Amino acid sequence: MEKVTVKSSLFKKEKLVAILFIALPLIGFLLFTVFSIIATGVLSFTNYDGIRDIKFVGFKNYSDLFTHQIFKKAFWTSVLNTLFLLIGMPIGMVFGVILATFLNSKKIKGKKFFRVLFYFPAISGAVAINIIWRYIFNNEYGVVRFLFGKDVYWLSNPILIKVAIIIKGVWNGLGGTMLLYLAGMQGIAPSLYEAADIDGASDVQKFFHVTLPLLTPVTFYLLVTGLINGLQSYADSQVFAQGDPGAQTIVYFIWERGIHQARYGLASSASILLSIVVMIITVINFKFSNRWVYEN
Amino acid sequence: MKKIYMLLLTGLVLVGCQGSGEQSRPFVSESSFTVSSLDEAQNYSVEFYGWGDEAEIKNYQTLINAFMLEYPNIAVSYNADNASSYMTNLRNRANNLPDIFYMPDTEFLYWADTGKLLNMRGAFSEEELGQLWPEAVDKYYYDRNATTLGESAEAGLYGIPKDLGPFTLVCNKTLLKQLANEKGVTEQELSIIDPDVPMSWNQFTTLLKKLDTNPNDDIFGVTHYEIEAAVYSNNADFFNADQSQQTITSPNFVQAMQWIADLTLQHHIMPNADQQKTTNGYQRFFTGKSIFSFAGPWDLAAFWPSTSFEFDVYPVPYGPASNSSSTAWVGSMSYSLSKNTKSPDAALLLAKYLCYNEQAQRQFYDLGQQVPNITEMAYNEYIHNPVFTAINKPNNMSDEAFLLRKENPSNRSVFVDTIDGFKDENDLVHGKARSRYYTYRSEWYDDFLAGLEKLWSGQETAQQTMNRLSSDFQFALEEMIGEYRQY
Amino acid sequence: MRTETMRKVGGISFKTVVYIILIALSFIMIFPYVWMIFTSLKTGLEAMDTTTLKLFPEKAMWINYQDLFKAVPFLKGVGKTMLIEITVIPIGTLVSALAAFSFSKLRLPFKNFFLLLLLSGTMIPYAALMLPQFRVFYALHMYNTLWPLILPGLFGNVIMMFFFIQYLKGIPTELIEAAKIDGAGYLRIFFQIMFPLIMPAIAVQVVFWFTGIWNDFFGPSIYLTNFNTQTLQPMLAKLSSEVGGGVVGLPRIMAGAVVSSLPILVLYLFFQKYFVESIAITGLKG
């Protein structure tokens, strides 16, 4: 009997401490996120433009996204653009895991050099990177004209500009993805490979049966953050594409119509919808993660 | 948890209510400004918010320091932003505006209508306003009851001009001469490029086709063409007098749009839409790849250090429609005061100083930022005997070389002629405010431009494109009319 | 041995193929930087030459750098950025690590609910939160100060916390249980056992966060509107948005890009040794 009470009081203390440890992030969440999203939610039902008195307009802003003669076109174009740009995420992950495998291999020399090099782009300023890539993709005096000729309009063709952003994005993110996979690989106990060696597994078999399954937490992390970041992509539309319609993303739509044109109500409704979609995707991700994410 | 939510909600409501103050104001009855003299014993502080590049910011700070020396009891704090984020930031602080700030003409109507700007009518003597461009002052009158722009008995004055200037044709004379030599184009043929007598569209394209014969090289006749310069110069407009009805499907308008498209499609003297996006007009012109482009007086600050050739300005060509005349768009900005400024008198003094202090105006044109606001100064000193100094000379240029650069353009009279409109029947050069100045909001123009792709690529005729865009545009016009007085 | 011999395709070993790929990739990775550096030393006309591809400038125009420092107070911007880094990262990292410890190793009630709650916050686009936040910061007179960029970070970084949680899954709970039975306090367990164990993860995340703050553009460009308060990135963006900036400007913009990338590259080169090698994890996991 006595043992049980000691244990339960210990548990009680632990619970308190546990809550204390997560208190600051929770308070920050309430202050900066909950407050703001409620405010945005309220705004999404108003005609607020920062200047005029607030009037409640019901669901008008939401219905405008689907029916307004002008806004609906812009909104749905931005949705399609955003989805298109997500293609970069799996490409980057595949390249990242392959590179990490190469650099984790004991047979390759100069690994350190390559690691340091590949991570270069990930630590450079986004503004600087966009400036330099925009210059490279300029079909008149950029480097690409020597590869593809002068008549391939990378910066204005609605498809090519997205391809350019994907290329730039993969280049930019490769180092980060690779390093995360590397960190994951170095956490895999050598004994597991030794056991596989005893079973006579080939390198390829080891990769698919030992490495990849043990890397699923990293993959999961990359997938969740990649999706979240991808759906929120903005800087590419603004700095790289300089607002070209072919590369306007959802968040660019929110920025342009909301901040730039002061239709805060409309922009708020779009951001609320976006938030809901992202949340649904993530919850689904978490629900199914149990099935494939490796845990010990 | 519940308590926290309640707190947050209360905070939200408080923040939301901030500045909304009085609810509905069915009729506008505001007393206009009355001049009260500055109290010598009192200290005033004025916040001035603007935008500009480094040179402009430095120049303003110098002027403001001079102003503070003259009025020791006024402390001015000057903040400058990027041109691109200026309006966004101004809007963000709409309930707590700086005392004095820039207001671009394309945004003026909205801000004047929402009652954020101080009515300055009555704060100026007749002489004070009389020395300025009447066209510039007239722009910033607005009658909030009748919702009409321009001076009238009931209108308030919600800004005084910072500047006024046309976006007109600019020519690379060095390239022009070189190409004329190569292609055997005579002096006689070139003489149609004249600062006083505008070309017709036909003369313009005919000449350029002789000079720019190779459609495949990277030399072009003109970098791009300003839509408003073509539309206005073909006796057309985007809408009728009260902006209730679109007129982009009118024959004159369609003709103007088709003409611009044909500069690329038929005549091959202008880069296509893709090329224009990749390399903007300034870039192409500065690198000497085009005979013509467009420039305003405010561009000279960038032209002087960026060009290594002779250039000059000319009136825009006029179209074939009846009664059409050379009409460039004329841009402007005002110094406006916040309705809630705590020191209106001090802010007004600063506005006056910046608007028509002679030394300040001289420095502005010396910096390549504008035509003087003072008409007398523009007609005489600016056109004939400008006082240029080596201010803001780039590192790699000598004083003498930079002063020589500043002799371009020599036809400064074109700027002035375009601003002052028709003085008499011999005057052939005219200007008009951008279409966005007349509408409640300005973003419809972006949507309009975005819809022109198929016209530029030749997949549609101008008639087809305008027919397709007219319903969205008409919709936008009607929506904007519904927005008046919704503050 | 067996696998080595099997990996020969047409006389070229697998290893050679890997080297070729790695070297080709290195070239692609490094090229934009090389191009950036050389362009920063060209004249405007050279940079926009449409006919020939020349890597080297005719004459190195170091004056572009002089012009750059004349045009914008870059060092001041670096100082502002660093001020954010050194206040936010130590505190924010500690807060995130403590929370991760709590989530993964302690008996936290409603664990999944709290985790999902916090994570849901990261899914909301900043654009959706920005306006109300702006209004509040503005009302608190924090406009054109660094506070709006510092304050949120002090409450931890949820992405970082999530990464720690994932990482901690690889560390056996028995270790903590044992320490608990020994009567060690929770903070002691955290600092003496957990902290050294998650050091590699912290290193990775600190670098990520550091670069994140260094590169942050959207936030600073909203809150900081003049040169005296601006951090590095808005300054650089301003340079490239100037009218005509594309000509006189292109090399100067590139000079700006070089200068803004350099400090962090140097820092990374110093840090990478610890950063890359310390990921060779403890081997605790069995």
Please tell me how large the radius of gyration of chain B is: 24 Å
Share in helix of chain A: over 70%
Mean pLDDT of chain A: 86
CATH architecture of the domain at 166-330 and 415-481 in chain B: 3-Layer(aba) Sandwich
Terminal Cα span of chain A: 33 Å
Overall pLDDT confidence of chain B: 88
Q: Which percent band covers the strand fraction of chain B?
A: 5-15%
Bin the helical content of chain B: 40-55%
Set down the secondary structure blueprint:
The complex is a heterotrimer of chains A (296), B (487) and C (286).
Chain A lengths: L1 H20 L1 H21 L16 H8 L3 H15 L2 H17 L6 H9 L6 H11 L8 H4 L11 H27 L3 H9 L4 H12 L1 H16 L3 H6 L9 H11 L3 H29 L4
Helix pairs in contact in A: 2-15, 3-4, 3-15, 4-14, 5-9, 6-9, 9-12, 12-15, 14-15
Chain B lengths: L1 H16 L26 E8 L2 H17 L3 E8 L1 H10 L7 E5 H9 L12 H5 L3 H6 L1 E3 L4 E2 L6 E2 L2 E13 H11 L3 H4 L10 H11 L8 E3 L4 H6 L18 H15 L7 H6 L2 H6 L3 E6 L4 H7 L4 E4 L11 E12 L6 H13 L1 H9 L8 H10 L14 H7 L6 H9 L8 E5 L10 H7 L2 H4 L5 H20 L6
Parallel strand pairs in B: 1-2, 1-3, 8-9, 11-12
Antiparallel strand pairs in B: 3-11, 4-5, 4-6, 7-9, 7-10, 7-11
Chain C lengths: L1 H5 L1 E2 L2 E2 H26 L4 H4 L15 H9 L2 H32 L5 H13 L2 H14 L7 H8 L3 H11 L4 H9 L4 H30 L2 H6 L8 H10 L7 H29 L9
Antiparallel strand pairs in C: 1-2
Q: What report would you give on this structure?
A:
The complex is a heterotrimer of chains A (296), B (487) and C (286). Chain A has helices spanning 2-21, 23-43, 60-67, 71-85, 88-104, 111-119, 126-136, 145-148, 160-186, 190-198, 203-214, 216-231, 235-240, 250-260, 264-292. With 296 residues, chain A is an all-alpha fold. Chain A has two domains: 2-43; 79-292, Orthogonal Bundle (MetI-like fold). In chain A, helix 2 packs across helix 15 and helix 3 packs across helix 4 (71-85). With 487 residues, chain B is of the alpha/beta class. Chain B has a domain at 166-330 and 415-481: D-Maltodextrin-Binding Protein, domain 2. Chain B has 22 helices and twelve strands. Chain B has helices at 2-17, 54-70, 83-92, 105-113, 126-130, 134-139, 173-183, 187-190, 201-211, 227-232, 251-265, 273-278, 281-286, 300-306, 344-356, 358-366, 375-384, 399-405, 412-420, 444-450, 453-456, 462-481; strands at 44-51, 74-81, 100-104, 141-143, 148-149, 156-157, 160-172, 220-222, 290-295, 311-314, 326-337, 429-433. In chain B, the strands form two sheets. In chain B, strands 1, 2, 3, 7, 8, 9, 10, 11 and 12 form a nine-stranded mixed beta sheet that branches. In chain B, helix 2 links the parallel strand 1 (44-51) and strand 2 (74-81). Chain B is globular and about 75 Å long. Mean pLDDT of chain B is 88; it is low at 1-29. Chain C has helices at residues 2-6, 14-39, 44-47, 63-71, 74-105, 111-123, 126-139, 147-154, 158-168, 173-181, 186-215, 218-223, 232-241, 249-277, and strands spanning 8-9, 12-13. By secondary structure, chain C is mostly helical. Chain C has a two-stranded antiparallel sheet with strand order 1-2. Chain C folds into two domains: 2-67, no CATH class; 72-241, MetI-like (MetI-like fold), CATH 1.10.3720. In chain C, helix 2 packs antiparallel against helix 14, helix 5 (74-105) runs parallel beside helix 8 (147-154) and helix 11 (186-215) runs antiparallel to helix 14. The two termini of chain C are 27 Å apart. Chains in contact: A-B, A-C, B-C. At the A-C interface, helix 1, helix 2, helix 6, helix 7 and helix 9 of A face helix 2, helix 5, helix 6, helix 7 and helix 9 of C.
